[in-house]
Amino acid sequence: MSGIYxxxxxxxxxxxxxxESPEAAVLERVANPxxxxxxxxxxxxxxxxxxxxxxGQPDFAHLVIDxxxxxxxxxxxxLKLYLGAFRNHGAFHEDCTISIARRLVDLMAPAWLRIGxxxxxxxxxxxxxxxxTGTPPEGVWIPDQGVPSYRGRG
Length: 154
Prior knowledge:
Belongs to the GTP cyclohydrolase I family. QueF type 1 subfamily. It is found in: Cytoplasm. Helices cover about 15% and strands about 25% of the residues. By secondary structure, it is an alpha+beta fold. The protein has a domain at about 30-135: 2-Layer Sandwich (GTP Cyclohydrolase I, domain 2), CATH 3.30.1130.10. A four-stranded antiparallel sheet has the order 2-3-5-6, covered by helices on one side. The longest helix has 16 residues, at about 95-110. It is globular.
């Protein structure tokens, strides 16, 4: 591999173990080869897990990460490993969701980013967490995240 992929430690390499924690995870970025075009990217993680920081019990969410790239794209294998690092990480739903968004913004400097954390019930109450960096760029098609309210989640 050469060019824009030089220096990536996880892309195309052997099977990588999950990082010990989200803080220890290496998120990688690549130059956006279409940086002159405003377009939309979506990552969906329908089986995201973390741990309740109080009980240690698992929490489950359907995450939808949408962004309009700036100069950088997130490398998808590193994103997968980063999200997987939350599996043994204790944090509240709000903290997990916003921490993921902020780390991606710091990494990529996107033109716009939003995250929807659709969490399954804990104590009988689903907690959904939403955040975005601001107004989406004009002229970019931003589809609905398409996740039904809890009653409709299968």
